[in-house]
Amino acid sequence: MYQLLSHYITSNQMVAVSVLFAFVAAFLCLRFPASFLPEDQGRAYAVNGAKSKGKIRGVGLILTVVFLLSTILFLPVDREYLVYCILLFAMMLSGYLDDAAKNPWSDYKKGAIDLILAILTMWNFVNYNETAIGLFGYHFVLPAAVYFVLGVVLIWVSINVTNCTDGVDGLCASVCCVTITSFAVLFSDQLENYGAANLIFVAVLLAYLCFNSKPSSMLMGDAGSRALGFYIAVIAMKSGHPFAYLLLAGVLIVDGGIGLVKIFLLRFLKISILKNTTTPLHDHVRKEKNWSDTQVVFRFSVIQIFLVLVMYLILSL
After folding, report:
1. Whole-angstrom Cα distance, residue 272 to residue 289?
2. If pLDDT is split at 50, 70 and 90, which confidence band does 49 have?
3. Contact (Cβ atoms closer than 8 angstroms) between residue 57 and residue 33
4. Phi/psi zone of residue 192: left (φ > 0), alpha (ψ -120 to 50 degrees), beta?
5. How would you classify residue 270: left for phi > 0, otherwise alpha for psi between -120 and 50, otherwise beta?
6. Facing residues of 139 across strands?
């Protein structure tokens, strides 16, 4: 498709066409969802978790498939990108199978899958890219082994904090739209075609938000949130500024990461912290501060936008 259309329209027009195609395709697929998609069983320990019971879950499968097809059809792709596509699909599939399972998968099972896919992703990355990082206007080349390990950690963290953030209608998709767009804008020269892929993913998420904004009729589930976390980590590394993830995904890190640290310390070190803080943080502000779901989405998104501005100022120094 790309080879055919490239003879008639410019690259910018191609991106516009791909974004429109992705939005329309995702919207129609969500408007008439497949009957095999599972239903949410509700979450016993989440604030207002029971309200999700009965909603269509696992539509991250649709979002990911539409994204992959749109990029492959309308963008020039190479072998490296195709491997990422396979791994992204595998990550989505692991989340979808968990969404559809009668009994949720254990954290250890999902963690093992994350680790395997992260290792395969880093093998692909270091095979095609320099292990250089940009930081405060300087560039450093790390030993491949060091970059490999740090990349695995980044992927694992990104998958899990993004997954934890998906607990309020519209929250995960909205914040991820800001994060993915910011990488596309701030690092357009470095990302090249990956930047266009970012815009396609945002289009898919916007179509999803038409159905996921409060009161939602469907949920992306682990199929969507785990795929998003994986994709954001890959984009952070492809930008050449992986540490930018700390700011450009700051809300995801704080919202989902506090709970992960709390659970890790309690489970493995028997250290109890933040006893009066409900995690993820979006549950704390709803329970203790009486924020509405809409307030959570808008305020967290606004905070993320300000973090993007801080990143822009740092890059401008």
Report:
1. 23
2. low
3. no
4. left
5. left
6. 134
- Which are the contacts of 137, defined by CB distance < 8 A and separation ≥ 6? 315, 317
If phi over 0 gives left and psi between -120 and 50 gives alpha, with beta otherwise, what is residue 299? alpha
Unique residue bearing structure tokens 């949130």: 225
Q: Are 151 and 234 in contact (CB under 8 A)?
A: no
Distances (CA, A) of 200 to 21, 72, 80, 227, 310: 9, 11, 18, 14, 25
Cα 298 to Cα 312: distance, rounded to the nearest angstrom = 21
Residue with tokens 């497949």: 34
pLDDT tens for each residue of 149-174: 999 999 999 999 999 999 999 999 99
Give the residue with greater pLDDT, 42 vs 240. 240
CA distance 230 to 92: 9
Query: How many Cα atoms sit within 13 Å of 70 on the Cβ side?
Result: 30
Q: d(Cα 291, Cα 112) in Å, to the nearest integer? A: 36
106 secondary structure, DSSP code: P
Please compute, for residue 13, the number of CA atoms within 13 A of its CA located in the half-sphere on the CB side: 6
CA 305, CA 43: separation in Å to the nearest integer? Answer: 29
Alpha helices in 213-317 (DSSP H): 221-238, 245-248, 250-268, 281-288, 293-316
